[in-house]
Write a structure and sequence with these properties.
By secondary structure, the protein is mainly alpha-helical. Helices cover 45% and strands 10% of the residues. The protein binds flavin-adenine dinucleotide (FAD).
């Protein structure tokens, strides 16, 4: 039997794990989908908390429809009520400069390619913050993510602002590194296994302490990430009743 010109009865099929879904994300208010940054809304895979420690098949697309609608409606009424608010021109200028830096740097021996760093980060997360986790490799991942963050400040890209995926990758890097750090920090903090989080050094689910959310916060001038824990809210009575009625 042939598939794409390959006799699949003779050629072995390569099978490997890959990322299917991100359970974490930006923490939002469940009604409005607004984050703790006023005017910043998130829904879908960018938002956090809806699916708990693992997502049931099919629930992602219903999540997008329900919470995407809420986010859109609340974002529109936020702008209608408050306008765009006061934006500090100094902050805009700073963000603009930061965004243009990779284009201004000329390729030389000290500059780095953003794609190369992105691949390095992907390999690092696959190897050390992947499906099966443990303390020593998570600690190594922390250090290596910090090293990549320093290197990310030296990325350079050629071309200009138009249709420039290299530049987009350079801009994405900072955010990829933030998400990587949040994953590594919370995976190291959570000393149990639950849902899609599996620690070989803590293989069991531990409900005494760990029935909690872990939230990564960047604090202070150095932007160091800290993990705080918050309790999981109890299911409201009327929803609990529906769950019980559905069996
Ligand atoms: C293989 C696979 C199978 C799946 N099967 C199912 C299933 O059967 N049922 C189910 O419910 N779910 C399934 N899911 C999950 C579901 O498809 C995703 O969770 C969902 O599509 C996420 O939607 P989203 O809008 O949150 O994010 P996305 O669909 O990822 O949309 C984000 C968009 O933002 C754009 N973007 C990114 N960065 C920027 C930027 N800087 N500026 C502007 N735009 C940007 C991206 O290009 C993208 O278009 C599956 C996922 C995978 C990978």
């Amino acid at each position: 039997m042939e598939l794409a010109g390959i006799d699949i009865t003779k050629e072995p099929m390569e099978v490997g794990p890959t990322t299917h879904y991100v359970m974490g994300g930006i923490r939002v208010d469940p009604e409005s989908q607004m984050s703790t940054v006023p005017g910043l809304f998130a829904a879908g895979e960018a938002g956090a908390g809806l699916h708990g420690a693992n997502r049931l098949g099919g629930n992602s697309l219903s999540d997008l429809l329900v919470f995407g609608k809420r986010a859109g409606e609340y974002a529109a009424s936020f702008v209608n009520e408050k306008g765009l608010g006061d934006i500090d021109p100094e902050e805009i200028h700073k963000a603009e400069q930061e965004a243009l830096d990779p284009l201004k740097r000329q390729y030389q021996s000290t500059t780095l390619n953003p794609y190369k760093l992105q691949f390095e980060l992907q390999d690092l997360l696959q190897d050390k913050v992947g499906i099966i986790r443990q303390k020593d490799t998570l600690e190594e991942a922390h250090k290596e993510i910090d090293e990549l963050a320093k290197k990310a400040e030296l990325v350079a890209v050629s071309g200009d602002r138009q249709f420039n995926p290299g530049w987009h990758t350079a801009l994405d890097l900072k955010h990829l590194l933030t998400v990587a750090k949040a994953c590594a920090c919370s995976a190291l903090a959570r000393k149990e296994s639950r849902g899609a989080h599996s620690r070989v050094d803590f293989p069991d689910k531990e409900t005494g302490h760990w029935a909690k959310h872990t939230i990564g916060l960047r604090k202070g001038e150095d932007g160091k990430m800290e993990i705080v824990e918050t309790p999981i809210l109890e299911i409201p009575e009327k929803l609990q009743k529906i769950i019980e009625e559905q069996g």
